[in-house]
Design goal:
Layout lengths: L20 E7 L4 H14 L4 E6 L3 H9 L5 E4 L5 H7 L5 E16 L10 E2 L1 H9 L8 H6 L11 E5 L4 H13 L5 H6 L4 H4 L15 E3 L1 H10 L4 E6 H6 L6 E3 L5 E2 L3 H10 L1 H4 L19 E9 L1 E2 L10 H16 L16 H11 L3 E2 L2 E2 L2 E2 L2 E5 L4 E2 L4 E7 L6 E7 L3 E2 L3 E4 L4 E8 L3 E12 L4 E12 L1 E2 L1 E6 L3 E7 L6 E8 L2 E4 L4 E3 L4 E10 L1 E9 L5 E2 L4 E7 L1
Parallel strand pairs: 1-2, 1-3, 5-9, 6-7, 6-8, 12-13, 15-24, 17-24, 25-33
Antiparallel strand pairs: 3-11, 4-8, 4-11, 9-10, 13-14, 16-18, 18-22, 19-21, 19-23, 20-22, 23-24, 26-27, 27-31, 28-30, 28-32, 29-31, 32-34
Helix pairs in contact: 4-6, 13-14
């Protein structure tokens, strides 16, 4: 993956003495691993001018610190309700928008046979487990969902999050939707939301304190499950996989069982992207779609929309710190999304990014927006393009936008000039060289005006296809060689023969390509005419193509 250099431009009003500056933010533990990667990368692209200190203190504390002007923005696993937004309006109003896309995984610690089995659950069974109605792993409701799996006679210990939690919100939202209007969860806990339980916070509290064990944060739940035989819990996907625990398959609205992954979380977001683009607080749990992971969720960035000296967390350069915070958030929802898949986060859908930009454009200091957005249309001349072959990509900025620079990035492996200037025509070109076949590849062009006050982010979905390799075989009295012509081919070639003559190959007739060539030794077995064929196995960049052959006389 190649990340853009991201053009960091301090506004002209900045005093030199303001830098270096540290943005104090925090909240959601779900987004914390990704936010800390954003912070490191942003510090680099700002050449050390701006550091970001993200503290995983939980959504509730994060928003409280934003309200107290300790943080410049807060991360939350759950969006504010309309009533909460209205209550904060007189203080400057909160602007909130999705900044990451993740999933809540069901992890467990039970010794089953075979040990390689990964368990399957539906919402009804999970609700009964966490209500304490299913208390043993040999319960028929569990075994029926897992045919061929043998469970121990062992008590189940449900493990849940203490305090206000957006992950709890996602999990209970899933249980609300899948247990049905007369299901056990609905009957026992109505909607499972803040209004029901009187939670004085912004994340849902676990409603059943008498069943199982409570732990702090996803890290605490992970440790609790890992250390308790028979335990089951819900955590952010990153934590479960990092601990090496198995994550269950969960039944989705189409009746299929899916694990949390970048692909299945993306499928859930894609199914509801049209809704979320118009309602950025919409919950995507139990989304439609055959491959959607049903406990998928967005995390949110919350920031004061109408900033003044009274919303400034203590620094004297209030405009500059607000500007840098906004620039960091733009980085997070654009270039920063490239870091997500490596940490089990799915990239935000483009429709959501566009809606986010509209929200960010409303954030202002004393009525003047920190950043305004213009259109940025991106296209690549050749698509699909064959791996190793260049394609010219063009970014065209909306009419009337001032001069500036484009920072280019790719969601895959490839090279191009990191930044290009925007001439008077408004169109800037770059040559992209893909170095791995991958479909689709997202080409992102981030535009920033020279003054840093106008931005425009555009993307293009580029198809990068394999090369169809050509295999050439040559033979002498002692060996048969093969040369595979393609894009840096790797892999193996298998030799075979047909005809009246017979030869014997060394190494069972196989050789491994080194710089596109390899050979096997041959010895005559019986005379005659023989056709030697070399069949290439192919690799990520090269399709095997037609086998090469050579006819020889065996003497």
């Amino acid at each position: 993956m190649m990340l853009s250099s991201f053009t960091f431009i301090a506004p002209a009003a900045n005093a030199v003495s303001y830098y270096p500056y540290t943005i104090q933010v925090g909240g959601s533990t779900l987004v914390q691993p990704l936010a800390q990667i954003w912070a490191t990368a942003f510090n680099s692209v700002s050449s050390g001018a701006v550091s970001v200190n993200y503290a995983g203190v939980g959504s509730t504390t994060g928003i409280a610190n934003l309200e107290s002007h300790i943080y410049e923005y807060a991360g939350s696993d759950v969006a504010l309700t309309n009533a909460q937004e209205v209550a904060l309006s007189p203080k400057g109003g909160i602007v909130q928008f999705p900044d990451a896309l993740a999933g809540a995984a069901i992890i467990y610690n039970v010794a089953v046979t075979p040990s390689s089995a990964v368990l399957h659950f539906n919402g009804t069974v999970l609700a009964a487990i966490f209500l304490g109605q299913i208390a043993n792993w040999q319960n028929a409701n569990i075994t029926q969902l897992n045919p061929g799996v043998t469970f121990p006679n062992e008590a189940i210990t449900p493990t849940w999050r203490t305090g206000g939690s957006g992950t709890t919100n996602a999990f209970t939202s899933f249980l609300n939707k899948t247990s049905g209007p007369t299901g056990d969860w609905q009957v026992a806990y109505s909607d499972g939301l803040i209004s029901t339980h009187g939670c004085p916070c912004y994340g849902t509290t676990w409603p059943i304190q008498s069943v199982g064990q409570g732990e702090s944060g996803s890290a605490g739940v992970t440790a609790g499950v890992e250390g308790t035989a028979g335990a089951i819990g819900y955590v952010d996907t990153y934590y479960g996989l990092n601990a090496g625990l198995k994550e269950a398959y969960i039944k989705n609205s189409a009746g299929n069982y899916e694990q949390p992954s970048v692909a299945t979380i993306s499928a859930a977001a894609a199914a509801d992207s049209g809704i979320i683009a118009h309602d950025l607080t919409y919950e995507i749990t139990d989304a439609p779609g055959s491959t959607s992971y049903p406990i998928s969720t967005y995390t949110y960035a919350l920031i004061w929309g109408n900033q003044t000296a009274s919303t400034c967390p203590g620094a004297t350069e209030c405009f500059q710190q607000g500007y840098d915070t906004v620039l960091f958030l733009v980085y997070a929802i654009t270039t920063g999304q490239n870091f997500g898949p490596g940490l089990y986060y799915a990239p935000l859908p483009q429709a959501v990014v566009t809606a986010d930009e509209a929200r960010i454009a409303t954030i202002n200091y004393l009525g003047t927006p920190f950043l305004t957005f213009t259109t940025n249309s991106v296209s690549c001349a050749t698509s699909p393009v064959t791996v190793g072959k260049p394609t010219i990509c063009t970014s065209t900025i909306g009419a009337g936008a001032p001069k500036g620079t484009i920072s280019w990035s790719s969601s895959s492996v490839g090279t191009f000039k990191a930044t290009t200037k925007v001439p008077a025509s408004g169109s800037s070109r770059n040559v992209y060289h893909p170095t791995i076949a991958n479909t689709p590849v997202t080409i992102t062009a981030d535009y920033y005006s020279s003054a840093g006050t106008v931005a425009g982010i555009g993307t293009f979905s580029l198809s990068v296809s394999q090369v169809t390799a050509r295999t050439v075989v040559t033979c002498s009295a002692i060996k048969c060689s093969v040369r595979v012509i393609g894009y840096q081919p790797t892999g193996t070639v298998t030799f075979s023969q047909a005809g009246t003559g017979v030869v014997s190959f060394s190494n069972s007739g196989q050789c491994t390509l080194v710089r596109g060539s390899c050979y096997v030794s041959v010895s005559a077995v019986s005379p005659g005419s023989d056709t030697i064929q070399g069949t290439y196995s192919g690799d990520v960049n090269n399709a095997a193509g037609t086998p090469g052959s050579r006819t020889v006389n065996v003497r």
